[in-house]
Write a structure and sequence with these properties.
By secondary structure, this protein is of the alpha+beta class. It is about 35% helix and about 25% strand. A 6-stranded antiparallel beta sheet has the order 8-9-11-10-12-13, with helices on both faces. Strands 4, 5, 6 and 7 form a 4-stranded antiparallel beta sheet that branches. A 3-stranded antiparallel beta sheet has the order 1-2-3. Strand 5 and strand 6 form a beta hairpin. Helix 2 runs antiparallel to helix 3.
Length: about 300
């Protein structure tokens, strides 16, 4: 049976013949070693060639076994999308124009060692903090560009420069959003009789912390005063469960919390619920209110007893 790589390569050949232009096969490495498979259609006179990812079309082919119909759907999808023909990216070469757009996000260190060889990063606990450029365009919308080592050389700056700018920019570009689990469930499910009316009715409420975009929001644990303000509000140290690169779950520390049980729960959710590229960590963390520090929780309980 044809696999996704063979499907993509064969589709490139067929689409190049159908459109009469060059079509390139492309594998795109995502976070945590995940890969997406796509093609790039290079039409003469255009300087913009978006990557068209083929996983949905591969699934369609597996279900229908209709090769010609699948290729036709790929071509129609490409032609229907309103890609701009030319795009001015000159601004990206000017560090003064990008410095206010630099932001950072949090990824797992061990799961991204190959990617980290080509990009600037800052090590933090078992994470790596990586750096991107935010952009917003009237034609192509908003998105981000991952900063590579080659960009630092062209700009004449350092990872430390990126870190300083990202610390300033990220909370402004992606403002903090924090809510109780109950409120999040209400947003998703509507009012339900079995949900408490507000957080005060929950003995030990769970909080979801992310950003307003709800994308790459785990970095909010490093926003200035974000955890401190919550810890002061609930008068407690804070347990941090890394639910994904997009958000974290926060719990007021209780002495009967068992680190191993919480870590096992995080591990199971990571394996059963998350896409590979959304994985952040299997560890559990503790924010200490008295020191303002985050640490990886060890032992059987948070007081260090097994």
């Amino acid at each position: 049976m044809m696999n996704i790589q063979e499907f993509t390569q064969k589709a490139c050949t067929e689409i190049a013949k159908a459109l009469g232009c060059e079509v390139q096969y492309k594998e795109v490495e995502k976070l945590n070693g995940a890969k997406h498979y796509g093609l790039i259609i290079l039409e003469p006179g255009n300087n913009v060639a978006p990557t068209l990812y083929l996983e949905p079309f591969f699934d369609m082919y597996l279900h229908t076994k209709n090769w010609k119909g699948t290729v036709d759907r790929i071509i129609r999808a490409y032609q229907a999308d309103s890609f701009p023909k030319r795009l001015d990216m000159g601004w990206f070469k000017d560090f003064e124009k990008v410095r206010g757009l630099i932001f950072h996000k949090l990824v797992n260190f061990e799961a991204n060692t190959e990617l980290l060889e080509d990009i600037p990063y800052t090590r933090y606990l078992d994470f790596a903090i990586i750096y991107c450029i935010y952009y917003k365009d009237d034609e192509i919308g908003s998105g981000s560009i991952l900063i590579h080592n080659s960009h630092l050389e062209a700009w004449g700056c350092t990872t430390q420069d990126l870190a300083r700018l990202a610390e300033e920019n990220t909370p402004r570009i992606f403002p903090l959003a924090i809510s109780t689990m109950g409120n999040v469930l209400r947003e998703c499910l509507g009012d339900m009789e079995d949900l408490p009316p507000d957080e005060e009715d929950i003995p030990a409420p769970m909080y979801i912390m992310t950003n307003e975009a709800k994308t790459n929001g785990a970095i909010t644990i490093l926003y200035p005063n974000a955890l401190k303000n919550l810890a002061d509000r609930i008068h407690s140290d804070v347990v941090i469960l890394p639910s994904s690169v997009h958000e974290v779950i926060l719990l007021p520390l209780q002495r009967d919390h068992n680190v191993k049980e919480l870590r096992d729960a995080v591990y199971e959710i990571n394996r059963r619920e998350l896409d590979r590229e959304d994985f952040l960590s299997d560890n559990v963390y503790l924010y200490r209110r008295d020191t303002g520090s985050i640490e990886i929780a060890d032992g059987g309980s948070f007081d260090g007893k097994e």
